[in-house]
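tl;dr need the bound structure. longer version: we got a ligand (inosine 5'-triphosphate) that a collaborator sent over and nobodys looked at where it sits. i said id run it. heres the input, straight from their email, havent touched it
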Amino acid sequence: MLLVIATQNSGKLKEFQHHLEGLPWTLDLMPQDLEIEETGQTFLENACIKASQVAKQLGQWAIADDSGLAVDALQGAPGVYSARYGTDDLDRIARLLRELGDTPKRTAQFVCAIALARPDGEIACHAEGVCAGEILYDSQGEGGFGYDPIFYVPAAHLTFAEMTKDQKRAISHRGKAIAALLPQLQSLAI
Ligand code: ITT
């Protein structure tokens, strides 16, 4: 069965493809010109909106993720506005570091909600994953995407940007959300 990965974010897309390898679905990319407005107040609402609208418009199964970084000292910001926090990854990181300043309270969580929609747009299943970490004072590491260079995971002694793909997959918010959905992804494709 065909499954459209409903994202315009190339970093997410690569991770999705890696996570979904070996599943009984044929993966497809969403058309670049499909614009979906993220009007939800929560990660889960936005993931459901994206999956449902892409599925309905294409008449195919679709999987979408809404994710972001919730920083405790910023009362959970940027949260669902993580993508809208700046014009590009460098700009978003610079703003976050500027707003945090030199506060010693650096704890944060990456959150990911994933939703799978049927070709008629109905949500078949969904899941969430969270990864706890700390915001560094400067970027560290070259890999990954988005806020990865400033997100340090104490348990691994590495930022997301310093991890291999497999290391990040094992502990990340996205890895955990997809792991929770795997049984349904497997059974629905049969
Ligand atoms: P789509 O909606 O097309 O999927 P997007 O980039 O707009 O792409 P979101 O609205 O879910 O996606 O925003 C997610 C934001 O959080 C975006 O700025 C990402 O770079 C960042 N983000 C999400 N997961 C991340 C991760 O694993 N590492 C680093 N940054 C991440």
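gonna send this back to them w/ a short note. The radius of gyration is 16 Å.
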